[in-house]
Amino acid sequence: MTDAPVYALDPSYYSDPKIFETEFKQLFTSTWQFAGHASQLVQTGDYFAFELFGEGFFCVKGEDGQIRTFYNVCQHRAHPLVNGCGSASKLTCPYHAWTYDLKGQLEFGPNLKSVEAIDCRKIRLTEVKTEVFLNFIFINMDLESNSMDQWFPGVRDEIEQFLSDWSSLAPVEWIEINENCNWKVSVENYSECYHCALNHPSFATGVIKPNTYDIRPQGYCLRHTTEARTGKSMSYPVNKSIPHANEYSSWYLWPMFSFQVYPGQVLNTYHWRPVDSEKVVVWRGWYTKDGEKNETIHQLAIQDRKTTVAEDIRLVESVHRGLKSRGYSPGPLVIDPKFGVNSEHSIATLHSWMREFFKGQGYSDQY
């Protein structure tokens, strides 16, 4: 007697615009999302603006050294306060010059004193929950959300062990990838290596040892581990004297960010930004000490773009088309109780998180 098979998500999860609208308004706004890097905010008053899921935000460094994130909207008549990036001692709206301090408190505005009923002390910019996680800035629009350490237990300490110089790292190169697929198709492809040996020959023969690849859930994190190639079979030079020099590790933080540490303490990140139910933009970031140019990292990024990235685009776009076929019904996942590279238990975990979320929204599939 064997356990009943676990089936993949119903195709509607990937193609139904109503599903995506629910994700857009509920899932993405109640989970931790990448905003930027602390190296963008060095001095007091440094800020950068960004958009996320239809909302404008900006991060700013306060006089107390704390990084805060606010909705980019003045509390007077709703004009954005800042654009792009820069530095300011005060935050002044360009529409009517209402001015806030770096903690979001309204300080003054033209002729406000003539209206006795207006109390500046009661007017503040709307703040969102912000955490600086190993110098990466994450936000959560749900002010009641648990901390990142609760969502992703042990991850901070593990990455610190794999990246002894994490505090000095800064972005050196970004690669923007447009994929014509639902964001979950891209994330799922990233979250298993069942397909690696067949589809990623450079990665499987020049970076990792596929037979050692394993993925385990860790809170709302999927933890990837594998041994690395050695000697001439490695596709780039690695300093063997540093800790974990012969390992590749990845920490996928649900739903849309991942840290990867390549052999030799090379940091690479993914973050996904859905456009609609059929398109997603994926940014891959590469990091060096103080963001200094490094030829080895540059060549690794080029190699990655020409091989793994290009190979994955073909795969995920083909899967997305297949999910819309009348001939497709969700198939059983290959779940090996011993885990390992040829197991899809990580996909089952992702699907359980999605089902858990949508069950709370009153939606469920039959599988």
Summarize the structure.
The protein has 367 residues and is an alpha+beta fold. Helix content is 25%, strand content 28%.
Chain-averaged pLDDT: 91
What is the number of E strands?
Answer: 17
What is the element string, with H for helices and E for strands?
Answer: HHEEEEEEEEEEHHEHHHEEEEEEHH
What is the SS-derived class? alpha+beta
Describe the protein in words.
This protein has 367 residues and is an alpha+beta fold. The protein has two domains: 33-140, Rieske [2Fe-2S] iron-sulphur domain (Rieske Iron-sulfur Protein); 153-360, Naphthalene 1,2-dioxygenase Alpha Subunit, Chain A, domain 1 (Alpha-Beta Complex). It has nine helices and 17 strands. The chain has helices at 12-15, 17-27, 148-151, 155-162, 183-190, 196-199, 201-206, 295-323, 345-360; strands at residues 33-37, 46-52, 55-61, 67-71, 85-87, 91-92, 99-100, 106-108, 127-133, 136-140, 169-179, 214-217, 221-227, 247-253, 257-262, 266-276, 279-289. Strands 1-10-9-4-3-2-5 form a seven-stranded antiparallel β-sheet, with no helix packed on it. It has a seven-stranded antiparallel β-sheet with strand order 11-17-16-15-14-13-12, with helices on both faces. A three-stranded antiparallel β-sheet has the order 6-7-8, with no helix packed on it. A hairpin with a 2-residue loop joins β2 (46-52) and β3. The longest helix is centred in the last third of the chain and has 29 residues, at 295-323. The protein is globular and about 75 Å long. The chain starts with 11 loop residues before the first helix and ends in a 7-residue tail after the last helix. The model has no long low-confidence stretch (mean pLDDT 91).
